[in-house]
Write a sequence for this structure.
């Protein structure tokens, strides 16, 4: 059974204070690892897909990386508008479904 | 493009009542999904569809039914609502896994309360 564990559950940072969110996964054959951002009262918004270990993707202040067991979402010099819950999900080969983690609630304090 | 839309946005039901949630997408996606999101539980898959006229059970299908009569629409039905079905419901869609990219795109959600 595929499993996704995200840590920490919640993270408070000062504006400009860089940090990383962790997504550990167990899957028999990784077809893709996905990062989403979710604002309160809204649906998840797609950020990145990573397909193989060593891959990295960037978008503004966010950078996602992937190893064989975990993915990190690095946030550099965050701003208050980066506050959101960040979700990680994995897809197995031959499987149409995603398995989601419970997310990390990120708060950036001005 | 509107992306993925859901109606209604909010609904309050009494125990035993029925309702249908509608999801529509204009991205020509083959796959569509229904999730529920509860505090501390993450997103859990209820049912999904890999094409028009097909449906399959997800992780938590009991108490729900679905139909996909048209490629762009995916309906979620509650025949006899229970308080345990109080949740936020999200619809999502994606291209087939046979394509090069198949990330899921989500709708804005429906907040359902069953009293």
């Amino acid at each position: 059974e595929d499993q996704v564990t995200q840590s920490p559950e919640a993270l408070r940072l000062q504006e400009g204070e860089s940090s990383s969110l962790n997504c550990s996964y167990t899957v028999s054959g990784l077809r893709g690892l996905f990062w989403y951002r979710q604002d309160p009262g809204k649906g998840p918004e797609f950020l990145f897909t990573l397909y193989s270990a060593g891959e990295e993707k960037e978008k503004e202040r966010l950078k996602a990386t992937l190893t064989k067991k975990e993915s990190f979402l690095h946030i550099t010099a965050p701003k208050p508008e980066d506050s959101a819950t960040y979700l990680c999900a994995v897809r197995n080969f031959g499987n149409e479904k995603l398995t989601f983690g419970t997310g990390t609630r990120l708060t950036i304090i001005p | 493009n509107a992306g993925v839309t859901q109606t209604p946005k909010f609904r309050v039901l009494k125990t035993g009542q029925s309702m249908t949630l509608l999801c529509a997408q204009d991205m020509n996606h083959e796959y569509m999904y229904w999730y529920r999101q509860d505090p501390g539980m993450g997103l859990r898959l209820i049912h999904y569809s890999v094409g028009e006229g097909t449906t399959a059970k997800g992780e938590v299908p009991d108490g729900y039914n679905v139909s996909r009569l048209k490629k762009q629409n995916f309906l979620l039905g509650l025949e006899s609502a229970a308080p345990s079905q109080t949740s936020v419901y999200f619809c999502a869609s994606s291209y087939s896994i046979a394509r090069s990219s198949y990330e899921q795109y989500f709708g804005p959600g429906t907040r359902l309360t069953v009293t």
User: Anything to note?
Assistant: Chain A touches chain B at residues 31-32, 34, 36, 41-46, 49, 87, 89, 91, 95-98, 100-103 (CB under 8 Å). Residues 53 and 67 of chain A are 4 Å apart (CA to CA).
